[in-house]
């Protein structure tokens, strides 16, 4: 890694590979923005805040190797920080390794891989897997460490995986909160205490979509929809008034995903195209704000505009929500019956009926 000091502005102007060489994967992910291969919707756990509704009971398996390598190649052409996520990719270690090995042979290995570290029970297996991934061309790792994950995965596992990853990949290439093991144990305690978790949600509100729409929304105050906070949307520090234009602008969107079915998504559950038929770079070059009525309405008017469309189709009256993303998920959950080609896949909306029932019971 270069010792030359460059500003964020200077680094952001460089190709992502150079940013990684000069400043590391974590900086590249922040400055160049991520592009994710959603390797599976299945997970070893079912976090209350999961955007994609992942869990052990979802039907999705691992993405086929051939598809994964093709999509990694497409994502690399975007000049973003490319990674494999889920769900939990390490549920399918042999397939994951084969994907990384083949992609590495072609020079398109993911820059990093996300995991909750549920599998990191012993030093030997962790070190062996990280070395094998590094030798394929993987540059770093991302570990989830918050009350939701740590209440289900032993904090010792996360700490072990993080420490070994620092050794194998270098600290600049490992993304994980810098909590001590004792602090992670405290977060785990919060995750299993309903009252303390509610306090945590109020002080660190997640996006209220997916699992959170029925498991965490009750922790936050309902507000009239015309009084919802503007600071919401996808990515850090998003502050947009009526519409959500940055979520549908290839240059400004925080993250793009390709899932096991080839669905291209910029936020969870709005399908913009399919990478099997139209490569992601080609779709981006065409422009995505007008690819379908859902994207067009969200970009221009936000969830309020989507609610107007839903009312025309008989949507139950929604007058309050906890945030813009919550309102959006509730409305999309209703509209999915009319546009399953755009609002999907099923995994993302698996919790939608429960979310709608929970919401309706709160507003009575």
Please, what is the average pLDDT?
A: 92
Please work out how many helical segments DSSP would assign.
15
- Which regions are unreliable across 5 or more consecutive residues at pLDDT < 50? none
- Based on CA atoms alone, the radius of gyration comes out at 20 Å
Structural class by sheet pairing and helices? alpha/beta
How many strands, which pairing sense, and closed or not: the largest β-sheet?
8 strands, mixed
Brief summary:
The chain has 364 residues and is of the alpha/beta class.
Can you describe what's shown?
With 364 residues, this protein is α/β, with parallel strands linked by helices. The chain has a domain at 1-204. It contains 15 helices and 10 strands. It has helices at 8-12, 16-23, 25-32, 65-76, 93-105, 123-136, 147-150, 155-169, 181-191, 194-203, 212-215, 280-286, 293-312, 324-335, 352-363; strands at residues 34-38, 81-85, 112-115, 140-143, 174-175, 223-224, 256-258, 263-265, 271-274, 320-321. The protein has an 8-stranded mixed beta sheet with strand order 5-4-3-2-1-7-8-9. A two-stranded antiparallel ribbon has the order 6-10. The longest helix is centred in the last third of the chain and has 20 residues, at 293-312. It is globular, with a radius of gyration of 20 Å.
């Amino acid at each position: 890694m270069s010792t030359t000091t460059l500003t964020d502005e200077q680094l952001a102007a460089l190709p992502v590979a150079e940013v990684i060489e000069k400043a590391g994967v974590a900086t590249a992910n922040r400055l160049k923005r991520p592009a994710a291969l959603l390797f599976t919707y299945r997970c070893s756990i079912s976090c209350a805040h999961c955007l994609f509704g992942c869990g052990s009971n979802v039907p999705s398996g691992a993405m086929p190797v051939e598809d994964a390598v093709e999509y990694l190649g497409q994502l690399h052409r975007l000049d973003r920080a490319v990674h494999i996520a889920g769900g939990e990719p390490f549920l399918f270690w042999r397939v994951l390794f084969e994907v990384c090995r083949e992609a590495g042979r072609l020079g398109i290995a993911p820059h990093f891989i996300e995991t909750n570290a549920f599998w990191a029970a012993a030093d030997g297996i962790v070190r062996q897997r990280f070395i094998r991934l590094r030798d394929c061309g993987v540059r770093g790792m991302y570990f989830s460490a918050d009350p939701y994950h740590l209440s289900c995965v032993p904090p010792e596992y996360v700490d072990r995986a993080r420490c070994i990853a620092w050794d194998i990949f270098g600290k600049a290439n490992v993304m994980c909160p810098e909590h001590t093991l004792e602090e992670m144990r405290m977060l785990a305690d919060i995750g299993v205490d309903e009252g303390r978790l509610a306090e945590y949600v109020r002080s660190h509100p997640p996006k209220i979509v997916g699992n959170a729409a029925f498991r965490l929304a009750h922790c936050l105050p309902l507000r009239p929809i015309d009084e919802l906070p503007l600071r919401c949307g996808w990515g850090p520090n998003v502050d947009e008034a009526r519409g959500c234009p940055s979520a549908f602008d290839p240059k400004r969107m925080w993250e793009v995903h390709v899932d096991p079915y080839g669905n291209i998504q910029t936020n969870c559950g709005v399908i913009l195209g399919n990478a099997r038929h139209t490569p992601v770079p080609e779709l981006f070059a065409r422009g995505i704000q007008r690819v379908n009525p859902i994207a067009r309405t969200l970009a221009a008017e936000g969830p309020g505009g989507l609610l107007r469309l839903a009312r025309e189709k008989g949507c139950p009256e929604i007058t309050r929500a906890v945030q813009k993303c919550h309102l959006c998920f509730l409305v999309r959950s209703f509209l999915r019956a009319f546009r399953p080609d755009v609002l999907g896949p099923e995994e993302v909306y698996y919790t939608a009926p429960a979310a709608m029932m929970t919401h309706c019971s709160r507003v009575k």
